[in-house]
Amino acid sequence: xxxxxxxxxxxxxxxxxxxxxxxxxxxxxxxxxxxxxxxxxxxxxxxxxxxxxxxxxxxxxxxxxxxxxxxxxxxxxxxxxxxxxxxxxxxxxxxxxxxxxxxxxxxxxxxxxxxxxxxxxxxxxxxxxxxxxxxxxxxxxxxxxxxxxxxxxxxxxxxxxxxxxxxxxxxxxxxxxxxxxxxxxxxxxxxxxxxxxxxxxxxxxxxxxxxxxxxxxxxxxxxxxxxxxxxxxxxxxxxxxxxxxxxxxxxxxxxxxxxxxxxxxxxxxxxxxxxxxxxxxxxxxxxxxxxxxxxxxxxxxxxxxxxxxxxxxxxxxxxxxxxxxxxxxxxxxxxxxxxxxxxxxxxxxxxxxxxxxxxxxxxxxxxxxxxxxxxxxxxxxxxxxxxxxxxxxxxxxxxxxxxxxxxxxxxxxxxxxxxxxxxxxxxxxxxxxxxxxxxxxxxxxxxxxxxxxxxxxxxxxxxxxxxxxxxxxxxxxxxxxxxxxxxxxxxxxxxxxxxxxxxxxxxxxxxxxxxxxxxxxxxxxxxxxxxxxxxxxxxxxxxxxxxxxxxxxxxxxxxxxxxxxxxxxxxxxxxxxxxxxxxxxxxxxxxxxxxxxxxxxxxxxxxxxxxxxxxxxxxxxxxxxxxxxxxxxxxxxxxxxxxxxxxxxxxxxxxxxxxxxxxxxxxxxxxxxxxxxxxxxxxxxxxxxxxxxxxxxxxxxxxxxxxxxxxxxxxxxxxxxxxxxxxxxxxxxxxxxxxxxxxxxxxxxxxxxxxxxxxxxxxxxxxxxxxxxxxxxxxxxxxxxxxxxxxxxxxxxxxxxxxxxxxxxxxxxxxxxxxxxxxxxxxxxxxxxxxxxxxxxxxxxxxxxxxxxxxxxxxxxxxxxxxxxxxxxxxxxxxxxxxxxxxxxxxxxxxxxxxxxxxxxxxxxxxxxxxxxxxxxxxxx
Length: 925
What we know:
Blueprint: H1 2-21, E1 26-29, E2 42-45, E3 51-54, E4 58-62, E5 67-71, E6 82-88, E7 92-97, E8 100-105, E9 110-114, E10 123-128, E11 134-138, E12 141-146, E13 149-153, E14 166-171, E15 176-181, E16 184-189, E17 195-199, E18 204-210, E19 213-218, E20 223-227, E21 232-235, E22 244-249, E23 254-259, E24 264-268, E25 273-278, E26 293-298, E27 304-308, E28 313-316, E29 324-325, E30 327-328, E31 332-333, E32 339-345, E33 348-353, E34 356-361, E35 366-370, E36 380-386, E37 389-394, E38 399-403, E39 408-411, H2 417-420, E40 425-430, E41 436-440, E42 443-448, E43 451-456, E44 468-473, E45 479-483, E46 487-491, E47 496-498, E48 512-517, E49 522-527, E50 532-536, E51 542-545, E52 555-560, E53 566-570, E54 573-577, E55 583-586, E56 603-604, E57 610-614, E58 617-621, E59 637-643, E60 646-647, E61 656-659, E62 665-671, E63 682-688, E64 695-698, E65 702-706, E66 711-719, E67 727-733, H3 738-775, H4 782-803, H5 810-826, H6 837-843, H7 848-858, H8 863-879, H9 889-896, H10 901-912, H11 916-924
Helix pairs in contact: 6-7, 8-9, 8-10
C-alpha cells in the first residue's frame, strides 16, 4: 500500500511538472470551417484517428481538415441531440441521442437507428469493455449489449424512478461498474450482477473513477468525491463554477474538468490541487474561445479538445516534439526570442538576439544577460569563440570582448571608433593561422595577437563595394568574402584579395548570405535571391540546384548532419535535403515555433545536435538528427473520394476504384490525422499511368484529376520523407462499351455522308451563281458565301470538338485565359450561385472539356477556387463601400454568388487567412 502511495505521488509530481511546462496552441472550428451546429455536446477519437463531434442535430466526423456530416433523423428537433459517442469492435461507431441508439452503417455510409423497439428513451452514456460488450445508460435504466442482444437492468423497479435516470458510466476496481444517476451513484458487480445504491440529494451529471475514489460532476455543487471504502460523499476542490458539464480522467492521477461558466481545469488528485486552467480572456487571442464548456476530451495523443455552447470546437495543435526550443529553467527561456547569432564552447552557450546578449554555462550553473545600457546596441549580429574569449559584433554599437571567467564585457579596439565603437560588425571568423577576421560596414579587418594586421577596403584593395556580410575559410584555407555587391577571395599564398579568379557563370557578382563546406568538400552558396549554388573548391565544376520546395524562399542558413544531409533554414520553414532529389519540410507540427528563420549561422555541437536561430527561439534538434523521422500513430488514409464533385463509394472493400466515362473529375481527400493547422501538412503524390514522378503537396490535403482517359492508373500518396507511409489506390476508367463503339462508328459514317451531300450541293450552288454572273451583271454573293462558309466552319468545328485530343496548346490556353478573364470582369457570371463549368465554357465559346484542361493543366487550380476568388474579390469591393454597410454578411455573400454562408466563410478564410468578420475589423482600424 505504501509503495503504491509513493508511486502515485511520484506520478503526480511528474504530471504536474509536464503539464505546467507544456505549451498549448489552440485552433478553432466554427461555421466557416463547415460546422452546421455550434453546440458541441460530445467528443470522441476513434482508433483510426478520426475525431467525432456530437451536436444538437448531427454527428460530425473530422479528419484534421474536412468535416463530414451525418444528420440525426427524426421528427422532433429536441430529440436529435447527441449525448455520447463510442467505438465497438470492427471500427463501428455507436451514438447515443435524445431519440435512442444509433450505429454507423458502413455499407450504407450513414447512421442507422438500432433497437428502436427496445430502447425508447434518450441514451446519455455509452461505455464499451473492449471485448464486445457495451453498457448503455438511458433515462430508463441500463442496457447491456452482448452478442447481438440487449438486456435491460433497472436500478429501481419503477422504470420512471430517478434512480434509473443514468447520466454517466465508469469502470472501477474489483470488477465494478459505477453508474451516476439523478438520485445518487450505484455499483454493478460484473461478476455476479449484484447492485449497490448510494443515494445523494443532488443529481449527478458525470462520473469517473481513480483508485478508491469516485469523482462526480453536478449541475450546481461542483465536484463531489465519493470514497469507495467508507461509502461517504464529500465536496471536492472548488473550480470556481458549480456547473460541471464534463468530467474525465487519465485513470491515474489527473481529472479533466469542463465547466459551464469558468473554462477548463486539470486537477492532480494526488496533490489535491488545480495544476492547469484554461479560461477565455478578453483580448487574449491565445486563450480558449469561451468559458461555457459543454464537452471536454484529452485524447490518447495528448491533444485537448473543447466543445462549447454556440462557439464550436477548440483543439490544441499537434507537435511531435522532434524539435525543442532551448531553455535553462528557471532562469532562461528562448521562447519568442529572435535569435541572431550563437556560439558554443563545451557547456557554454553565447546567444545573441535582437534584444541583447545571453550567456549560459550549465555545468557551472551560470546565467547572465546583457543589454542596453551595458551594451551600446542591443541588436547582436555576430559572435565567435576565439582563444578563450567570445567576440561579439553589434548593429550600431561596435564590437565587444566577453570573458567567460570574469563574466565581463570590454571594448574590442577603442582606437577605431568606426566600426568598433559605433559601427556595424556583421561577421567574426578565425583562420588556421590564428588570425581574427572581422566583416564590417567599412571593410574587412584582420587582427593577430590583439593587433591590427590589415584593413581592406574597396579603395585600397580588390574588395567589392558595400557591407561585408560573411567571411568563410574553406579546407584549403582560402577566405571567401561576401559583400553587398559580390565576392572576392583571400588568397593565403599571396596574402591578397583577388577578383579575377572566378569563372564565367559563377555567383561572384551576387549578394551571398552564407557559404558552407560539406564533408565531401563541396561549397554551398546561399544567395539573397535565387536557387542554392554549389561548387567544387577549385571552381572547376559548379551549378545551381533547383529544389521545388525551396523555390521562391529566402535561404538563411545551412549545416550538414551526421548522415551527410543538408539542413537549410529559410524565411518560410526548415528543410532537410539529401543533395539529390529528396527534400523534407519541417514546421510547427515538428516542434518549430515559427516558419521564419533568421540569418543566423546554424551550429552542430560536439554530440551531433543541430541548433538553429528562429524568430521565436533557439531551435534544437538532438542526436536523433541523424534520423529525424518520428513515428506517426496513424496510417495515412483516404477520407473521401469525390467524382464530378459528389461523394463516391467504391463498390467493393478492395483498393479498386472503377469509373465510367462520365467521370470528368476525380478528387481524393486524405489525412494523416496529425491535427495541426492545415497549412502545415505536407504530402507528395503520383498518378502512375499519367506521370511517373512524385509531386509535393503543401498546405492542402486534396488532389484532383480531370478527364482521365480510359485505362488503368495507380494513385499513390505518402508523407514527404516517409516512404513507408505510402498508400495506393487502383483506378480503372472504363472505355465505351462495344455497342457504343459500333453505334458511334455508324453515326460517324452517317454524318460523313450528310456532310458530303451538303458540300456537293453548295458546290452546285456556286456553279449556278457563277453561270448567272457570266450572263448578268450581278454583285458578288458575299452574304450567301458568308452563310455557307460559317455553316461549313460550324460543321468542321463540331467534328473537331468531338475528336479533339486531351492536349491544348499553350498558345490556345493563353488566348482562352485572356477571354475568360475579360468575361469574368465584364459580365460577372460568378454572381450566379448555380454557375457551372459548362456555362462558363459557353460564354467563351469553348467546351467544358477544354475549359477543364485550362484550369487543371494551365492554371493549376480547380474551377470552384477560380470562381470563388472572384466572389471574394467582389465582396471586398462591396464591403468597402458605405452604401453596403447596412447589409448582413449572408446577404452580401449571396449577392456575390455564394450559395451558402458556410461556403462563403470557408473560402474567404482559405483565400485571406482571416474570417470575413476579422477582415471587416481590420478595415475599421
